[in-house]
């Protein structure tokens, strides 16, 4: 009998925008994982991934001393959220010493930094941001959900979800890469419908967060609500993931490309 998998710390970022060019309904950025992924192959997800040792570097604490970190979610998880978002989409949640978002003048240097991250050098983020005089915008992350993968699966994650407004220049550098094969902006309602009809494979935590965000009309409303809402840790049972409770989900997505 194999040992029970221990949940690994992970982070997910739900990027928000107010429709194309700031007009229209609230939208979220979703990615499709490749069919060969070890975890959730082919699933439609928010940007995110596991916490790496470099995300726990003590140097981050000094770098983020001016930021407000939610006490319910460790700094290392917030750093991982920002790093994974940048790796997977090219969108960096960072600010300069005046608190301004990253601009086009950093495009070239950030492209080089992203290539290092995609090559597996997680420590490159702190080094690269320091060199550019930037720091992670951890205060822009709003802790909104906490899910732990059910026991009985070959890979388990203790995942914290954050909401964040996408950089205004979201078209600047947003692209597939890393572990995604497709990305796009959509309304939460449309994403949930795609999941119900099996057009997209959407896991229960993603569905729950989409439903919560979809209750709001704008980024400001969704972020304000999340800042005051209680976050309850959800520990689902594998037996709860049934076609009746999660319509449209293929159970194979839970097992991974290697079938466990």
Report on the architecture of this protein.
The chain has about 260 residues and is α+β, with helices and mostly antiparallel strands. It has one domain: Nucleoside Triphosphate Pyrophosphohydrolase, CATH 3.90.79.10. The chain has 8 helices and 10 strands. It has helices at about 60-65, 75-90, 105-120, 125-130, 190-195, 205-215, 220-230, 250-255; strands at about 10-15, 25-30, 45, 50, 95, 135, 140-150, 155-165, 180-185, 235. The longest helix is centred in the N-terminal third of the chain and has 15 residues, at about 75-90. It is globular and about 50 Å long. The protein starts with 7 loop residues before the first strand and ends in a 5-residue tail after the last helix. The mean pLDDT is about 85.
Task: Please give a quick description of this structure.
The protein is α+β, with helices and mostly antiparallel strands and 260 residues long. The chain is built from 8 helices and 10 strands.
Task: Annotate the secondary structure layout.
Layout: E1 8-17, E2 27-32, E3 44-45, E4 48-50, H1 59-63, H2 75-89, E5 94-95, H3 107-118, H4 124-132, E6 135-136, E7 142-148, E8 157-165, E9 182-186, H5 188-196, H6 204-213, H7 219-228, E10 233-234, H8 252-255
Parallel strand pairs: 1-8, 7-10
Antiparallel strand pairs: 1-2, 1-4, 2-3, 2-9, 5-6, 7-8
């Amino acid at each position: 009998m194999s040992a029970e998998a221990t949940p690994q710390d992970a982070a997910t970022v739900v990027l928000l925008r107010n429709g194309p060019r700031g007009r229209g309904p609230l939208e979220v950025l979703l990615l499709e994982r490749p069919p060969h992924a070890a975890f959730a192959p082919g699933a439609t997800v928010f940007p995110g991934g596991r916490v790496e040792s470099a995300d726990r570097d003590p140097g981050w604490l000094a770098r983020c001393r001016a930021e407000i970190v939610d006490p319910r979610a460790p700094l290392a998880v917030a750093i991982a959220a920002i790093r994974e978002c940048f790796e997977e989409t090219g969108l960096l949640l960072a600010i300069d010493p005046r608190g301004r978002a990253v601009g086009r003048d950093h495009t070239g240097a950030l492209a080089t930094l992203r290539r290092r991250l995609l090559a597996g050098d997680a420590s490159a983020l702190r080094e690269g941001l320091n060199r550019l005089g930037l720091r992670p915008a951890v205060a822009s992350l709003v802790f909104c959900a906490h899910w732990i993968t059910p026991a009985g699966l070959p890979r388990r994650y203790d995942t914290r979800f954050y909401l964040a407004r996408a950089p205004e220049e979201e078209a600047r550098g947003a692209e597939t890469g890393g572990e995604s094969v497709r990305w796009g902006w959509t309304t939460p309602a449309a994403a949930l419908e795609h999941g119900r009809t099996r057009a997209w494979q959407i896991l229960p935590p993603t569905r729950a967060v989409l439903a919560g965000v979809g209750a709001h009309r704008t980024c400001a409303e969704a972020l304000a609500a999340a800042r005051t809402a209680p976050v309850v840790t959800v520990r689902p049972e594998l037996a709860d993931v049934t076609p009746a409770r999660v319509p449209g989900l293929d159970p194979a997505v839970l097992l991974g490309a290697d079938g466990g």
